[in-house]
Hints:
By secondary structure, this protein is α+β, with helices and mostly antiparallel strands. About 35% of the residues lie in helices and about 30% in strands. The chain folds into 3 domains: about 15-125, Endonuclease I-creI, CATH 3.10.28.20; about 130-295, Rossmann fold (3-Layer(aba) Sandwich); about 300-385, Alpha-Beta Plaits (2-Layer Sandwich), CATH 3.30.70. A hairpin with a 5-residue loop joins strand 9 (about 230-240) and strand 10 (about 245-260). Helix 2 packs across helix 3 (about 75-85) and helix 7 (about 185-190) packs across helix 8 (about 195-205). The radius of gyration is 24 Å and the shape is globular. The two termini are about 45 Å apart.
Amino acid sequence: MQLKNxxxxxxxxxxxxxxxxxxxxxxxxxxxxxIESVGEGSSESDALERAKANAIKAKIxxxxxxxxxxxxxxxxxSSVMSFFQGFVYDVKVLKKEVNSGTYKLFISCMVDDRDLNxxxxxxxxxxxxxxxxxxxxxxxxxxxxTPDSSKQSSTEAAMISYLNSLGFGFVQKSDNVIKLLKxxxxxxxxxxxxxxxxxxxxxxxxxxxxVVLGDVxxxxxxxxxxxxxxxxxxxxxxxxxxxxxxxxxxxETYGADASSNEGFAASNAIKYAIEEAxxxxxxxxxxxxxxxxxxxxxxxxxxxxxxxVKEFEMLNDFISAIEKVDDRIISVNSKGFKSGNSSVxxxxxxxxxxxxxxxxxxxxxxxxxxxxxxxxxSSQIFLKIGN
Length: 387
């Protein structure tokens, strides 16, 4: 089935608008690289988010105008925060004003720009937004939701709500889709457990470009006192690129909430876990950024390395070393250790020759593993490592 590419161009701001963002009273560069900005909202938290968005706008303006990049169209505050949460850290509230129910916060913060310019140029402007399919099992208190059920889980609701706000498409649970998933019931279990080959096959058949796999649990915790029910959610998620079968993002996160309504608290706890998984934190890269860095529609090749190696530890170390030799490597997946002949599948944006040269010419690999090429085809490389 030919996959539909929903083309998107997320345009950042007309250059004059960016300059204005960077120089208005809403934001300006403070001492030692800190951005100072102002945000207004109906609540303190809303004002804080708007202030952070203005700080990010200022940094985006600096990045683009500094490189004379002219990008068309418009970027509103909600879009800024949707894509760049996790870039803002060390936030300090300098001043707070409240007037007729409107909060105004003056903040100082740092905006991490190490990846920001590359993210703008290579991701937001050039990539198509993929169509996503959910294969996630949820256990919420006493209820279990599976992918072949027509009832939407809290995980799906949170994921779809967030990604829809960014313009992502979804494989909807039509009668035909549910029927096909029911026929795949045995395979669904394996996919949820992380079988990327099955996930790729199901996603391809249903017209998805990315498949979200995982398991989400929401369970009660010790009582917080009174009538409140305390719930904790654990989300273990992966995103699989249907085009290559590779894992392009993964995260395990926690969320918690307390309410007199146990079901409401469970749904909120799951929502918080999902949002953290997607957004990340200042210390953890979220799944959105992971996926958009690794996923590249229609541009990835599968190669198999057949490796003669005597020890499992050496194979493991070799795989870890391969992952670092070339940034065009999407993923490296071992097919299991067999003394004498092990197999590794690599998804790579390039040719077999380029991949081979990256491996055998790497100084650390040459020193530690002494690789010798015994044979090569257009899709398979045969190596011997070690003495």
